[in-house]
């Protein structure tokens, strides 16, 4: 008897000859039948090694289609899939391994030295794995919806990474919710450069599209020109990129040449998107919108029609079919329209716990509600806007300042490529509004940009200090790294 946890088997029965996965680096193509054969092989390999339900399988690899076979095989055997961030240092990886205690680490050829750094762990090089893809597979695991399927470690920008435990229910309901709310079907195709150790690389579009019977194209190292060409080559319909990727895309020659005829809409996520990017896509006549999510919830939580997104730049729309959201003010009361507060999320896609971290788990919930730590507001029509991280809100001279408002304004300046704003500790003001700029053309002077801000913003919001950089530092998933920027500013004032 096949349970909802084995939906990938049902998909292989329904769509055996349909292309499921394409590796853009190697050109390798798997149909759903081939994917199922690969899943069976890995499931039998795990059984031959004596791994038992609940054991953790750690994976350290760049994006490749084999990871989906391992992921689904883990689910079918009751094992817990733990993707590791390959950009972390060995010390950082060791902290994660100490936390989750995997029975094995599967790694790719880019991490040949792995066994030297972690000699106490059983390891397997992906390219040398010998798994039988033609043997029978028996469903002998008694799954429960709340059983863990994945542990995805958060970025750790405000401390040590935490392992968010995602159950079958969490992953599957995020996919179901996305398919129904966004109208995905078996004709959809996505190009995924988001790293597959990140929830955006697995759960934003890849797993929902596989559940719907569509096609997932994987990419390794993001290159803007190449990515745009692949959108046309593979006839993609909906793909997710972060704002910094879009900024690079808009600077290519190829974006001036194609109308991207198969693309329904470009989707942005990971961070609030500058209005300047919206405006560029609108001038080209290309639909563009953004979404919102986090590792612990989804990551899909909202939907907006792309035409509506063009009218209301910056909104993520309304919550999806099978989840709830609300905004709570500093007094613990529900916010009114246009009042900023913390975003709370509830639904079967929301995780239940951090691995081996009861205190952080308790701090994250209020009853059934996940406290996201993100600031949001909604307008009179019920459309939501993400204002920024609660921990990034600047309090200067007793005034609350939301960095995104200043960042959006700076990004609209013709000589500004990207902007990041944060608060730096200050004896007089408590926090000093500080901006970091990468310039698109000739560098502007600090005084000119401050005057530009003063023409639009209240005086308390205007940056007191502006730093100019050729490139702003990035996190592992391509977001602007504000933690590094703050360290740079603190060193500069000493």
TrEMBL record:
| Cited SUPFAM superfamilies | Acetyl-CoA synthetase-like
Ranges for the AMP-binding enzyme C-terminal domain? 405-479
AMP-dependent synthetase/ligase domain: residues covered: 15-355
The superkingdom of the source organism is Bacteria
Alphabetically sorted, this entry's keywords are: Ligase
Q: Member of which family?
A: Belongs to the ATP-dependent AMP-binding enzyme family.
Q: PANTHER family attached here? A: ACYL-COA SYNTHETASE, MEDIUM-CHAIN ACYL-COA LIGASE ACSF2, MITOCHONDRIAL
What name is this protein filed under? AMP-binding protein
Which species is listed as the source? Psychrobacillus faecigallinarum
């Amino acid at each position: 008897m096949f349970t909802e946890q084995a939906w990938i088997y049902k998909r292989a029965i329904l769509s055996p000859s349909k292309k499921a996965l394409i590796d853009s680096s190697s050109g390798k193509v798997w149909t759903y039948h081939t994917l199922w054969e690969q899943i069976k092989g890995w499931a039998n390999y795990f059984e031959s090694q004596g791994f038992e339900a609940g054991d953790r399988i750690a994976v350290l690899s760049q994006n490749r289609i084999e990871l989906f076979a391992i992921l689904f095989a883990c689910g079918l055997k009751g094992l817990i899939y733990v993707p590791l961030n390959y950009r972390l240092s060995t010390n950082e990886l060791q902290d994660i391994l100490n936390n989750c205690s995997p029975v094995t680490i599967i790694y790719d050829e880019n991490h040949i030295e792995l066994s030297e750094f972690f000699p106490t762990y059983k390891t397997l090089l992906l390219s040398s794995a010998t798994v039988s893809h033609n043997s029978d597979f028996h469903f002998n695991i008694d799954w429960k919806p709340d059983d863990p399927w994945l542990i995805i470690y958060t970025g750790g920008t405000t401390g040590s990474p935490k392992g968010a435990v995602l159950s079958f229910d969490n992953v599957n309901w995020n996919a179901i919710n996305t398919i129904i709310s966004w109208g995905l079907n078996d004709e959809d195709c996505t190009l995924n450069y988001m790293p597959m150790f990140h929830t955006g690389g697995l759960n934003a579009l890849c797993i929902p599209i596989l559940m719907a019977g569509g096609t997932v194209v994987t990419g390794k190292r993001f290159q803007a020109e190449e990515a745009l060409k692949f959108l046309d080559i593979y006839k993609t319909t909906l793909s997710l990129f972060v704002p910094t990727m879009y900024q690079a895309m808009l600077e290519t020659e190829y974006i001036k040449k194609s109308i991207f005829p198969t693309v329904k809409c470009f989707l942005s996520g990971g961070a609030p998107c500058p209005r300047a990017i919206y405006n560029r896509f609108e001038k080209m006549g290309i639909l563009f919108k953004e979404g919102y999510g986090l590792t612990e919830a989804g990551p899909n939580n909202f939907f907006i029609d792309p035409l509506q997104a063009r009218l209301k730049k910056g909104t993520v729309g309304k919550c999806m079919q099978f989840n709830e959201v609300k905004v709570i003010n500093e007094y613990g009361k529900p916010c009114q329209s246009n009042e900023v507060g913390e975003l709370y999320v509830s639904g079967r896609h929301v995780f239940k716990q951090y691995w081996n971290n009861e205190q952080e788990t308790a701090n994250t919930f209020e009853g059934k509600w996940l406290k996201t730590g993100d600031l949001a507001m909604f307008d009179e029509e019920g459309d939501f806007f993400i204002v920024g991280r609660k921990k990034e809100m600047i309090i200067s001279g007793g005034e609350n300042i939301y960095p995104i408002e200043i960042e959006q304004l700076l990004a609209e300046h013709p000589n500004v490529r990207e902007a990041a704003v944060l608060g730096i500790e200050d004896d007089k003001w408590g926090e000093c509004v500080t901006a970091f700029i990468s310039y698109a053309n000739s560098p502007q002077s600090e005084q000119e940009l401050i005057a530009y801000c003063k023409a639009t913003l209240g005086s308390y919001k205007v940056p007191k200090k502006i730093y100019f950089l050729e490139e702003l530092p990035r996190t592992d998933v391509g977001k602007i790294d504000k933690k590094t920027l703050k360290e740079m500013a603190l060193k500069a004032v000493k």
